[in-house]
Design goal:
Largest sheet of chain B: 5 strands, antiparallel
Oligomer: heterodimer
Distance between the termini of chain A: 58 Å
Distance between the termini of chain B: 54 Å
Shape of chain A: globular
Strand order of the largest sheet of chain B: 4-5-10-6-7
Number of strands of chain B: 14
Shape of chain B: globular
Number of helices of chain B: 12
Order of helices and strands of chain A: EEHEEEHHHH
Structural class of chain A: alpha+beta
CATH topology of the largest domain in chain A: DNA polymerase, domain 1
CATH superfamily of the largest domain in chain A: [2Fe-2S]-binding domain
Number of domains of chain B: 3
CATH superfamily of the largest domain in chain B: CO dehydrogenase flavoprotein, C-terminal domain
Chain lengths: 179, 294
């Protein structure tokens, strides 16, 4: 797709202005281009995976204006003037950092294909519910499929991340109390 | 899997959307959340000629409460409805249905009107709309008609929306204090499509409205069970109560076009609906009595 000049075949193309992972982007896109293809093919951000391409598996979960969304069910033209964050953009976000460490610690990925989507969904959960119980975690992740079936460790990792974030908060609190 | 080409028309207001809709052919569709439409487009099961994109229509993004009704514009996201304090307090069954409707990531984009207009037999909200006596606001350029939820759903993925028309809003009557409700469903995974489910709305005047979903092509009112509901003993779980529920349900489902698939046979769906009905009725009664106490 990126090998084809934008004006070739003179298909209906729109100038898309959007911000992806903090960087302003301007590209010509066909209205039918999915956000998942825009990220992967146009911007070469291949961290967003496409599993089922019809909204069932959750691999392509990204953030649109800070809320999780399926990139395979969103047209690129729908993120005009919006902010998109993909797994590459989580960077130094403290919740994402805790989740990455916990996924490593708890062996929460096997083949890793579903991991970007799980990280996005888990980050959304922990940003809204800092100390979820196991049931809450399972419900929040119910839209993501791990084809390796490694759910036990994924749930454990999210719980572990929540605990380590809580410990960090307590420590912070202790420090400010001591002052 | 990629959608076929379509003409994309972003609209900034409902009037602009209706003008665009009138100027397009009858295969044009409204694009709001796209959480039901885009999967069908990716699978090429739907190939709309044009999409009127209402995501920029701020005038369709409101939840309004007036005159005993709460009205949701066509761009109100499911998640917005689910988290709205007015909805949680005065339309608790709608909030509960939205929580069961898909996953957080799809609810962030999917709209309340979208799940109604899509009319999937296994969706919760159509049945809840029928049980609560919701009204659909259908608009076309220069005209508007109000359709009760019960007359809106015609079959699987089929509604009375005509070409050139759009579901501009849906409104639900605010539930009175001392109203009870119950919503129960079962499916293959949490928040996924329901194999069978039931919505019970119990009004203080002794009026009970019950609607099943997932078992027939359209949401199905259960008048025999509704009539029997008042006479059922308060304890929901006894074998005798269960038998009476199953009997009433059997009368309501006589000759119904029950969904029969690999995932769940018609017989299973009927049996599990009786169990779900007992659960939802018990919940409704308990909530009604709690409301009285407070």
């Amino acid at each position: 797709m990126t090998d084809t000049p934008p004006d070739a075949n003179a298909a209906d193309r729109r100038l898309l202005r959007t911000t992806v992972n903090g960087i302003a982007r301007q590209e010509l896109v066909e209205p039918r281009m999915l956000l998942s293809d825009f990220l992967r093919r146009t911007l070469h951000l291949t961290g967003t995976h496409v599993g089922c391409a019809h909204g069932v598996c959750g691999c392509c979960t990204v953030l649109v204006d800070g809320a999780t969304a399926r990139a395979c069910l969103t047209f690129a033209v729908q993120v005009q003037d919006r902010e998109v964050q993909s797994v590459e953009g989580l960077g130094e976000d403290p919740i994402a950092a805790a989740l990455r460490a916990s996924f490593h610690e708890c062996h929460a990925l096997q083949c890793g294909y579903c991991t970007p989507g799980f990280l996005m969904a888990a980050r959304q959960l922990l940003s809204e519910t800092p100390e979820p119980d196991e049931e809450t975690i399972r419900v929040a992740l119910s839209g993501n499929i791990c084809r390796c079936t490694g759910y036990v460790n994924i749930v454990r990792a999210v719980r572990h991340a929540a605990d380590s974030l809580a410990a960090a908060r307590d420590q912070q609190q202790g420090l400010s109390d001591a002052r | 899997m990629r959608p076929a080409s379509f003409r994309h028309h972003p609209a900034r207001s409902v009037d602009e959307a209706l003008t665009l809709l009138a100027s397009e052919d009858e295969d044009a569709r409204i694009l709001a959340g796209g959480q039901s439409l885009v999967p069908l487009m990716n699978l090429r099961m739907a190939q709309p000629s044009a999409l009127i994109d209402i995501n920029g229509c701020d005038d369709l993004g409101r939840i309004d409460e007036a005159g005993g009704w709460i009205e949701f514009g066509a761009r109100v996201r499911q998640r917005e409805g689910e988290l709205s304090t007015a909805v949680r307090a005065r339309l608790p069954m709608v909030a509960a249905a939205l929580e069961l409707n898909g996953h957080p990531a799809t609810r962030h984009r999917g709209t309340i009107c979208g799940t109604l207009a899509h009319a999937d037999p296994s969706a919760e909200l159509p049945a809840v709309a029928v049980a609560l006596g919701a009204e659909m606001v259908l608009r076309r350029q220069g005209a508007c008609r109000i359709v009760p939820a019960e007359a809106f759903f015609l079959g699987a993925l089929e509604t009375c929306i005509e070409p050139g028309e759009m579901l501009a809003a849906v409104r639900f009557p605010v539930q009175p204090a001392r109203a009870g409700w119950g919503l129960a469903e079962t499916g293959l995974r949490r928040h996924d499509l329901a194999l069978a489910g039931i919505a019970v709305a119990m009004l203080p005047a002794g009026v009970t409205r019950i609607c099943a979903f997932g078992i027939t092509p359209e949401p199905l009112r259960l008048p025999t069970l509704e009539a029997a509901a008042d006479d059922l003993p308060r304890s929901g779980g006894t074998p005798a109560t269960q038998a009476r529920i199953a009997e009433a349900l059997a009368a309501d489902l006589e000759g119904a076009d029950l969904v029969d698939t690999l995932h769940a046979s018609a017989r299973y769906r009927q049996q599990v609906t009786a169990t779900l009905a007992a659960r939802a009725l018990a919940d409704a009664r308990q909530r009604a009595s709690q409301e009285t106490a407070t």
